[in-house]
């Protein structure tokens, strides 16, 4: 991304702004770019992670670097399941553009991503929310995809609990405190990857 491209975006004459804006994978993580002319500050939020965006232009062009937190154990498991022909889906209340880009490294196609979506008309993003799968909404999103009783579900937040509850096997991974409590009540085994395992 060049300074000329930023000038073209904030000037309203860039021919392909979506190539520049949004999440972009890099070698060491992600860069998220946004043009929000009315904003004084912007924060990227994903689950419990937060990153303050830096203002790169006075007319509201912001960027943030997001470092990956991929658990190698889960990456190996997903690869093994895919080799065995298992269909893997990603369900999230985070924006679909972010999730689709993030799961590419797991070979999960965009067609198997159920995430927050907005209406796009004539290439322009609108304020109309089409779906925000969270809590029971994740179960509903899976049902619309024809999945009512998945073989297993992995989740890290209490907002995944309804989805975990419909699975034949539920696996809370690096769970939030609220999901730890729910897991104890439900008898779900908790898994902490090595990089985040409590001492």
Task: Describe the structure in your own words.
With 199 residues, the chain is an alpha+beta fold. The chain folds into 2 domains: 64 residues, no CATH class; 117 residues, HAD superfamily/HAD-like (Rossmann fold), CATH 3.40.50. The chain is built from 7 helices and 11 strands. A 4-stranded antiparallel sheet has the order 1-2-6-5. A hairpin with a 2-residue loop joins strand 3 and strand 4. It is globular and about 55 Å long. The mean pLDDT is 90.
Strand and helix layout:
Elements: H1 3-11, H2 17-20, E1 22-25, E2 30-35, E3 43-46, E4 49-52, E5 54-57, E6 61-66, H3 72-83, E7 90-95, H4 96-103, E8 113-121, E9 124-131, H5 136-144, E10 152-155, H6 161-165, E11 169-172, H7 177-186
Parallel strand pairs: 7-8, 10-11
Antiparallel strand pairs: 1-2, 2-6, 3-4, 5-6, 8-9
Key structural traits:
199 residues, alpha+beta, Rossmann fold, 2 domains, 4-stranded antiparallel sheet, 3-stranded mixed sheet, 7 helices
């Amino acid at each position: 991304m060049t300074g000329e491209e930023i000038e073209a975006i904030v000037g309203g004459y860039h021919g392909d702004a979506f190539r520049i804006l949004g999440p972009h994978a890099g070698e060491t993580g992600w860069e998220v770019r946004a043009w929000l002319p009315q904003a004084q500050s912007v924060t990227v939020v994903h689950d419990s992670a937060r990153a303050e965006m830096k203002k790169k232009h006075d007319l509201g062009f912001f960027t943030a670097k997001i470092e990956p937190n991929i658990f190698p154990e889960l990456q190996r498991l997903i690869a093994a399941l895919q080799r065995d022909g298992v269909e893997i889906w990603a369900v999230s209340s985070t924006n679909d553009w972010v999730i689709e880009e993030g799961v590419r490294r797991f070979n999960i196609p965009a067609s198997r991503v159920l995430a927050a979506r907005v209406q796009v008309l004539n290439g322009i993003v609108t304020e109309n929310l089409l779906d925000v799968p969270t809590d029971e909404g994740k179960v509903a999103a899976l049902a619309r995809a024809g999945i009512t009783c998945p073989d297993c579900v992995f989740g890290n937040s209490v907002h995944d609990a309804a989805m975990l509850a419909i699975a034949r096997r539920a696996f809370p991974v690096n769970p939030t405190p609220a999901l730890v409590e729910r897991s104890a009540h439900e008898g779900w085994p908790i898994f902490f990857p090595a990089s985040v395992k409590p001492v």
